[in-house]
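Recall from the previous lesson that a structure prediction takes nothing but the amino acid sequence as input. Here we apply that procedure to TonB-dependent receptor from Sphingobium cupriresistens. The sequence below is the only information supplied.
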Amino acid sequence: MKGWVKSQIPANAPLQPAHARSPEQNEFAVRGTLKFDASDSFDARLKFTFSKRTGDSSAANLQFVDCPLGAPQTGGVDDCRANGTVSSADAGANFAGLDPSFDGRGTFLTQKQVLTGLEMNYRPSDTITLTSVTGYYSTSLDSVGNFTASYVPSTYIHGRNYLSIDEFSQELRVTSDFDGPFNFTTGGHFQDSRVKSGAHSFLNANAPVEILEYLLKQDGLGYSAFAQGTFDILPTLEISAGGRYSHERKKLPFIGTDTTRNPSNPLIEQTAIVAKRSFNNFSPEFTLSWRPSKDMTVYGSYKKGFLSGGFNSGAANFATNLSYDQQLIKGFEGGAKVALLDGTLHANLALYSYRVTGLQVTVTTGGGTVQELRNAGKVSSKGIEFDFSYRPPVDGLRIDGALSYNRGRYLDYQATCYRGQNANSPVPCLNQLNRVSGNMALLQDLSGTELLRAPEFAGNLSADYHVAVGNGLELGLGADMTYSDSYLTDASSKAAGRSPSYALLGASVRLGQQDNGWQVALIGRNLTNKYFWTRSIDNPFSGTPASGGTTAGVLGDTVGPITRGRELMLRLSYSFR
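The prediction returns the following tokens.
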């Protein structure tokens, strides 16, 4: 891939990118499945996936999406709009002398992933199935990038990030298939993980100064036991109840950092303020289902769940507590599933109301150079979801659609302030008591405001039609539309980070053999060339620091990675089935 954005850096500027289009990437992947059926009582399935990606860094498509002063405050030329252009420079030659690992390659990314899974099923009888699922996942990433979206040497942050993850998991479960009113599933799960994360960053491409170097290791161990049973109270009424108990442990066996800011010095091992955390949780679930007819099911459920806590791997100040807490969720869901028009129309309607405690939110600290996970206080999410699938009385035609309404609000959340925010901002930035830590801090209270990345309305609609055209060939036509309301993308709820609403249109034309074999397809995505983003932050060195006073500040420039614009592709495929 040669990339979908073009450089708009002037030809006379230093540090020209290595190529005019980015992100330039090469990707290779292989995936295979091996099935084994020894008898009616035993079968196994082994899946293996390997992928490798090389090319530009993860920051190659970082763009200015808003500049309060009309142009980047760090200097240089940029149109400050989400589109198909960037103004991100290459590395230059001065960094390799301070860290040989940069080796003059400029910006780059190399990532490898391995994912394997072995599922084995043994049936000692017609009513009992014993299942074992063994999994292994490994990934390594090495990336060097420009994290200020700029080509001005003095404001250039050039950083290397590396990550490796190794995880092993094992699940055992027993499932029944009795003829009677009661059936169950029960089992246990084990997971062991090893993570290494590090970074080495410099400021100023002309005279580099080290601003960050660290290596952090995190180990995780988790156990869980679960059980679920269903009971037919009546032929049309079923109750299901279950729960999962989880115990997870996280620890930091090593933290190393360069406190001298001298790249020639080795990392110095640090003592973590909190080096071990453990989390225990019991999450129950209850569901009542009523089937008044074979074409309709009405249900209601109560659920609890959790997401384990851990340690931040990107925090620059290792003299602080690096841990974040678990995320808890509980709530209700109910709805109906129906089949109408002799089974040609299937529709689902669901209403939900959930409350989250300790929502894990990524925030930017360290003057805009460090990202870390923190916990929001309480969050409410309520909404309605509807989807349908319809096969009208036209052979080969299928229509699918979905629509959702969501109201997500912070109930209790004190967030960091964005650059330029002050006491007179729409949400005031004030020196106030942090309700979590008990310390005074410069914060904004987002309680009652819109949740991050939570569009109010979203939906999609698609149609697909295929018809025989003779000589054993089949013609296929497809069209689809995806819509989303605008939503906030900056964890500080900065208005300039709001991504616009969008409607993405796609279409395809396919021609191939009727009974598998070859197929050629012309596919168009995002045909109206819409640009949006899902994440944004204040660009370092722009705007004025947040203040609890009333003096007007200057808002910082907002940057974020932008989605692809219009895509046209030709796909050739062959099916051996």
